[in-house]
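Hi C.,

You asked whether I'd gotten around to modeling the 246-residue construct. I have! Everything is below, sequence then structure, no commentary in between.
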Amino acid sequence: MRIGEIAALVGVTSRAVRHYHHIGLLPEPVRRANGYRSYGIRDAVALARIRRLTELGLSLDEVRDVLADDAGRELAEVLGELDADLARQEHEIQRRRTVLAALLDGPLTPDAPLSPSLIELWKAAPAATSPAAAKDREHLILLEGAIGGEALYTALRPLADDPAVPSLYERLDELDGAPADDPRIAALADDLAAFVPDEVLEAVWDGGPAVPGFGQALLADYSPAQADVVLGMMERLAARMGGRPS
């Protein structure tokens, strides 16, 4: 058989056969006196195996490793890795579809797309005009895929409709423009720290190391007196968690 004939028999292109020769994946066959390659049945079997392996999703380097092991042990190993990779892709696709389903359930917001847990948190939280509450929403969006993530949003869910939350935001709003020695700062830091459940703290620290610079950027988003409240709250929470860094 000539190259076009073996390619048609196996279901690949002549260009693919030449490429396999070029990279050493398929051995060069004997050549006739006129210089044309002459392929036999064994060549067709080898080429067909390459085609089947690539259709399974193996890279050409992986196919090379499989072909080098006649006993087939490496084939089982590579196929197992391929199956695990497909399972990860399948899980990621399902996660994305879950997010899309939550978005389609609406209403869509300018912040979309968001995780299902954060969407549920927004749905449960009452509408608020507090600037401090608006900052909190922005900060939580920034944590998407970072500290805490889904576990954090789930842990915060019970706080969404807690009647004590609006008054805490109002007290923080009132400190906008207040002096650094305002006596309300320490009291509010105490109350905010006491209000945060242990489940929220666990979600934050279990989410991995803090994002570098996030704490500084968060504090810079507030007025000086408000930043002192937030910093004081963070210090109290860190002490509550055994001094682990936030």
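If it helps when you're writing up: The CA atoms of residues 119 and 208 lie 23 Å apart.

Thanks,
B.
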